[in-house]
Amino acid sequence: MFNLSPGKDSQASHIAAIDLGSNSFHMIVARWDNDQLVLLDRLREPVRLGFGLQEDGSLSDDARERAMACLERFGECLRAYPSRSVRIVGTKTLRSISDSRQFLADAEKRLGHPVEIISGDEEARLIYLGVAHCIAPDKGKRILMDIGGASTEVILGEGMKPLLKESLNMGCVAITKKFFMDGKVTEKLVTKALIACLQELEPVNEGFLALGWNEVLGASGSIKAVAKVCAAQGWSDGTISLDSLEKILHAYLKHGSLDLTMDGLSSDRQPVFLGGVIVLTALFEALEFDRMTAADWALREGLLFDVKGRLENRDIRQASVDALAQRFHVNMDKARAVEKTALNLLTQVSGSWSLTADDASKLLGWAARLYQVGLDIAHSDYHKHSAYVVQHVDLAGFSRVEQTQLSALVLAHRRRFPTRQFPLDNTDLLRLAILLRLAAIFHRGGARENLPTLKLAATAKQLQLKLPGKWMDKHPLTIADLETEQRYLGDIGYALQVGEH
């Protein structure tokens, strides 16, 4: 999440990541030693958030209480950490609840850090990143899956790069909740659950099979639990096969209920273990796996590597922005010119407007690179098309809130200010929008190289823009645009004065 106002962030030797999953909440703390990740602490609590998700999208009181109690404990460990060293994400259940804004606000109070809701596509990218750093890729492609509480991510990649990602609506909590809530296990219910998973896989399995792979990996709780059971039962060294999955299913059918105890199965995993086994069995059948190796790392570790990249100015979000601009044939000469002008204006007012040099400049710069993407769709109202694309396309590295902020800036870069769609209560974002609008005015005719020296001063809602008098005389259209902008900014309570220097 963008931190637009300056805080007391300092360089930290430790970094932390929290994964607010549908089954469990995880926290991991690490430090870097000779460019190697050294894990210092892990905490896991089976919150079962997904069990509290109601049909109307609300979250039950008991699930919310379990979640907040857990976050209170996590927060005690994190309060001394600077925000840039911590990343906290929510996945499928938080993507689904209707009151996510209130949940996030309550969570942030307890954690002392912002919480992001990430898309299924971003979740898959981070999982692949974590596993790729855990098990070094061999030559050729590898396929990886992660069975969570409410969703399952399937990723096919090569080296460190994911090539095909899918987030599927099935998970250990979701299957348990739908088919086994009374605790009974019958052949009919197992068959129904398996068919439901195969139906979820049906639209995507051909795409994966067409690409092929040399290695099959699994990550996270359900798959690691199956691997432990396989090893404890003496079926393998922990390698998972379809035969071992069928043995587990047979044991459940013979026992007749979810309270089956097995060597290698922990008590807190027991209530959702069968659901995970059924999802994994469907994956084996649909994608024709022979064997699978369980990886120790997944989403949490991927988050740590992502945080490290951002701290070292290797931010995947920059590559995502540039790729989107290229995809929609943005005039990059003009985009870079607008970016340069906007960042120049930001430098002049960042102190008086209390804007950070880092996150504010990133967000403003990326908006400058993307505000033209809608031109590839239609020239009329292109800013609306641009905003829609930026809001809804999959942008690797971005959370939902970040894409919403970026989309708002793109939408607000021209014409009357979109007061109904723009979060006017977000003063920092509003001020960045004003800077983008001013920069766009000076490049309306193209990527001008002979811009005058722009001097901008700001105090609260007052702006003073000063230009050379001779330049103003030679550019009446730009001056007319600035006069129009004075009226537009006046509509939202800001005053722009334009004069000579």
TrEMBL record:
Example GO biological process: polyphosphate catabolic process
Record's keyword terms, sorted: Hydrolase
Enzyme Commission identifier(s): 3.6.1.11
Location of the Ppx/GppA phosphatase N-terminal domain: 28-307
GO molecular function, one term: exopolyphosphatase activity
Lineage: superkingdom: Bacteria
Positions of the Ppx/GppA phosphatase C-terminal domain: 316-486
InterPro entries: ATPase_NBD, GppA/Ppx_hydrolase, Ppx_GppA_C, Ppx_GppA_N, PyroPPase_GppA_Ppx
Top-level EC class as recorded in UniProt: hydrolase
Keyword Amino-acid biosynthesis: no
Name the UniProt record assigns to this protein: Exopolyphosphatase
Originating organism: Cellvibrio japonicus (strain Ueda107) (Pseudomonas fluorescens subsp. cellulosa)
